[in-house]
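sanity check both lines:
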Amino acid sequence: MITFFDNLRNLTFVSVFVRMILSLLCGGLVGIEREYKRRSAGFRTHILICVGACMTTLTGQFLSIYMHYTTDMSRLGAQVIAGIGFIGAGAIITTSKRQVRGLTTSAGLFSVAIIGLTFGAGFYEGGIVATILIFVVESLFSKFEYNIKTVASDKTMYIEYKNKETLAEIFEIFDSHNLKIDNIEISKLSKTEQEKEPLSCAIITVQPKQKGSVKVITEEILKLDSVKIAEILTS
């Protein structure tokens, strides 16, 4: 451990102030990246969670050390870990195209809650290192993840069509290009005022043999009269 922090590990006004400020700064640092990417849980949300988690740990210590309550001082912190799941779940959504959004934001909220707990416990080194690592993962590794998805062989297509006959025509196009289908998910969409009957949507995962072949196939599918939308979700 770093000896510089030794005098701040006891529960004093100065140590409480330092822990709260570090929670604010580190939670805000992680939140800035989410705010920049226009995520639902951004700068202020991450700060509030991190500071709140820090205060929870401090409260547990205060009740045990100064109030002499016969309780486990880590119990309140454990409830933060359980409770943050409700907030994190609220950040996860499934789009109309069956794509899951918000997993990274949810994981970030969980992480800043843990950072707050570490600062509240006086574990400054762990909180600072964790903040740096989380910031690097969210800001820099996102580009690396995008490059992996770009070179991935599997491609996912989203198609909205009117009837079963259309689906058969789509499969014929796949067969003509010798395109292998790995997975397919079909569901009904709610009927709109403009449509006489509800549309169906298909999310199809394929393995193209040549680069750019999926784009050509998508253009062919769009030429079908009964196809409303056809696009590549992963490119």
Remarks:
- The beta strands are 93-94, 100-101, 155-161, 180-188, 200-207, 227-232.
- The longest strand covers residues 180-188.
- Residues 136 and 142 are 9 Å apart (CA to CA).
